[in-house]
Amino acid sequence: MALELLKERWSSAINVLKVGAVKEEGGTRASAITVGGQTTLPFLLDEGGMPHRPVVAMEIFDVAPLEWPVSLLEPFGDAVKDPVKWAKKCINEFKADLICLTLKGTHPEAENISADKAVELVKNMLKEISTPLIIIGSGDKEKDNDVLARCSQATKGENCLFGLAAQDNFKTLVASCMADDHCIIADSPIDINIAKQVNILITDMGFKPEKIAMHPSTAALGYGMEYVYSIMERSRLAAFVGDKMLAMPFIIFVGQEAWKVKEAAANVADEPGWGDERMRGPLWEAATAVAMLHAGADILVMRHPEAVATVKRSIDSMMKGNND
Amino acid sequence: MSTKYTLELRPDKKEIKVSKGENLLACAIKAGVYLNSSCGGDGVCGRCKVLIKKGDYKTEPTGRLTSEEKKKGYVLACLTTIQGDLTVHIPKESKLDLAKISDGDAQFLRLKGIYSEAEEADAGKAIIDESIYSHSPLATKVYLQPPLPTLEDSISDLERLYRELRKTRDIPIMQTGLTNIKRLGSLLRHSNWKITATLGKRNETTEIVVIEPGDTSNRNLGVAFDIGTTTVTGQLVNLNTRKILGTKATYNKQVAFGSDVISRIIYATEEHGLERLHHAVVDNMNDIIRVLIEETKLNLTDIMGVMCAGNTTMIHLLLRVDPTFIRREPYVATANFVPVIRAAEVGIKIHPRGLLACVPGVSTYVGGDITAGVVASGIANEAKTTLLIDIGTNGEIALGNREWLVCCSASAGPAFEGSGVTCGMRATKCAIQGVKIKDRQDGIKLTTIKGGKPCGICGSGYIDILAELFRNGIMNKNGKINREIKSKRVREGKDGLEYVVCWKEESEADSDIVISEADIENLKCSKGAIYSAAATLLKKVGLTFKDIDQVMIAGGFGTNIDIDKAIMIGLLPDIDRAKFKFIGNSSLVGSREILLSYQAMEKAEEIARKMTYIELSVEPRYMDEYVASLFFPHTDLDKFPSVKEAIRGVRSK
């Protein structure tokens, strides 16, 4: 007798988040990116729908990240010195779905690049590339409130995704994104309650919940990833039974976490037993990313082209219902 | 060290001789001037601020004073040592108002419940029917006229006494001390075989406490105490008639050595620390007894028994038992069930042979005060499932009915008792207890206890302020003040934004009375701890707030809180308001019940044994519940439907 599998059905769906705007919508993107809309846990396509596949954004910096390990810098060559060139390479050669521009150089303790310069770069970037854009601040609250607000204003109509809005610093960014019709990333420190609280605080200001992506924090493989996994799973389960304040798609910064750990970054000369870092690093990043996909990630922000390629293949395969 | 200097304390005009290098805070206490000191003299809380008028001193640097204050000559007393003759001015806000014991003050202390509507003030009735426990007080006096011995009836004096007693009541085990036996022979003959024996229940045994000549059986008094971390309350009771003869409350003098139990346990480890703490509370109790006796014009020696309900640490300190191990893992108390002892052994001045008993505790962090509370509330006898919340520093929570009982202790912190917050004070004269914000710009209506000019904010005042700030959109759900509000009351302060509740000119305080974002954070943690502890306890037994038949709020503080506002900020669950009952100082009521009935004592022991203690720190769900509660009113707004409705209404305006 055939065994009938029990199927879980949920009453609510994840929000549909659209990043980028085409000409008719007031932007200049060739096409927008749409994620979310799931009515099932990741890739359980027999139980519900996953109308939009997860996407991969590649992360680039406004200043060359010379602190990156050689194995990560190598594939980009000289392009890392020119953000626009770098972005184009990611899109054209490495098939990034969209670009995540991190304005690291604006940090007062880094290059302290001015808001004017940042605005110029962002405008130029949008002119030169056709994919939607994610714009991330340097992490310095005061500077971000200046830089991101200016960037938001300068890119009005493009429907960019701005981050990060956190519990202790969200008002300025929310107000800007609301005025200029952008999307926003709500950040929280691996805590489902705080994740929800940030979403409530943002929507309390009148911001549309459909324009929020959640960042529940990211951890690399071997560094507490399972904790993030369980928080994401709990959020999803709550959303599926109707919690609107946890129904936002997830954005996960895989690259920055994976490349922080020595298992990915150390070169073989220092760790002879670990094998070639040119293979090990991308694998570490890809493994982290795939695990995050299974936790429910909608937008992965990644770094290494090979890891990106692996993950994109994996998404293809899993979207076919191939869960092997 | 032999050099003696003069320390003058203004405005009290007290002078004492001190030695070089002595600590200013310690000297002030020695001089009988008590300063606020939440941290117990560690230089952390910044509440013992004093102004040096003239003289030599050394003081350690501190970030607790603004540079302006330092320039003016302010120092923290606990960080200052005396180097010569010194004149010091003590500002009002630094002084610990060790209120004199009087009706007026007692009425408005933290334990307002003693004279509250919830407890039917003057009668001081318990909320349950007192007659459910038989009348069998801690000490009973029996007048006896044993038949004279003859050659035919020649049993000994003591056996004669026992035989006579057993005629009146069933006493299986009886004992008498040597002191009484020594005096018995001549006492019986000199009193013409008319004597009064005082019987005391010492656990299973009945003891002949004392034998007096003549008939004194109608003079049998007892005192029930609630020994709180902050306040000590005593009630004089006629043990024969169960009539309450008077109630007095005073601040716990131990406050001078730290405001919470942990800092006191630490202080107890210092040289003479335990002794000082012990003497402080014994002094408190003797003071209360003395005043009660003076006012009622009764005799001290007619007080035959004292019953004490208090948390485990308070009982340890009262008995002068080292409390060190209470705060060390695995947090074990020396004793939760303390046998009945002679009151004189710890220095309580009543009849020299009078008894002292303590209400048994459940665990190290759920003391006899909560057991007494459970006895008083009657939840252990009820079919209704009841949640009992004692809102205090140690936020004890009990849940159950006559079939089962569980309890836990939530470290809520002292914020709602007015400690650890910028302008906080205890619920005493001049404290702001009610707040209504009429408009966002400026309009605010304050009510103070006894109606004077405000000098600070007490717990119920803070609940009102939070609810009003929230309701008016001045504070967001996260507890942050809205910078965009156009009101001169919103301004940049020392700890982020602050809201001016009362201007200096309209107050008795030395500066504007404010609530800062840091205060709000502190209060948010307190209310979150209480709500989440209750929620966790319910979940642990598979219930929700909806399943609760009634919620009893205990603690003096609980008698004058606005239920709607407490729900608005998420301190109390959003359920039918009719289910809430204020029971005032349940610990004192329980203490009295137990003083008056051995059956109630047995009930207390049964409760203490049967109540399951849930340690929240090892409960994985608790942290989750706690973080969810750190929001106004709660992360899950659906748990607070009436608040959801109320704030929707405000927004649509």
From TrEMBL, chain A:
Domain CO dehydrogenase/acetyl-CoA synthase delta subunit TIM barrel, first and last residues per copy:
27-306
Q: Which domain of life is it from?
A: Bacteria
Which SUPFAM superfamilies does this chain map to? Dihydropteroate synthetase-like
Q: Could you tell me which PANTHER family the record lists for this protein?
A: ACETYL-COA DECARBONYLASE_SYNTHASE COMPLEX SUBUNIT DELTA, PTHR36214
Under what name is this protein listed? Acetyl-CoA decarbonylase/synthase complex subunit delta
Automatic annotation (TrEMBL), chain B:
- Could you tell me which PROSITE patterns the record lists for this protein? 2FE2S_FER_2
One annotated GO molecular function: iron-sulfur cluster binding
Q: Which InterPro entries match?
A: 2Fe-2S_ferredoxin-like_sf (IPR036010), 2Fe-2S_ferredoxin-type (IPR001041), ATPase_NBD (IPR043129), Beta-grasp_dom_sf (IPR012675), Corrinoid_activation_enz (IPR052911), Raco-like_middle (IPR041414), Raco-like_middle_sf (IPR042259), RACo_C (IPR027980)
Q: Where is the 2Fe-2S ferredoxin-type domain?
A: 3-94
Superkingdom in the source lineage: Bacteria
- Pfam families the UniProt entry points to: Fer2 (PF00111), RACo_C_ter (PF14574), RACo_linker (PF17650), Raco_middle (PF17651)
Under PANTHER family, the record lists: IRON-SULFUR CLUSTER PROTEIN, IRON-SULFUR CLUSTER-BINDING PROTEIN-RELATED
- This chain belongs to which protein, by name? Ferredoxin
Q: What organism is listed for this UniProt entry?
A: Candidatus Aquitaenariimonas noxiae
Taxonomic lineage = Bacteria, Pseudomonadati, Candidatus Omnitrophota, Candidatus Aquitaenariimonas
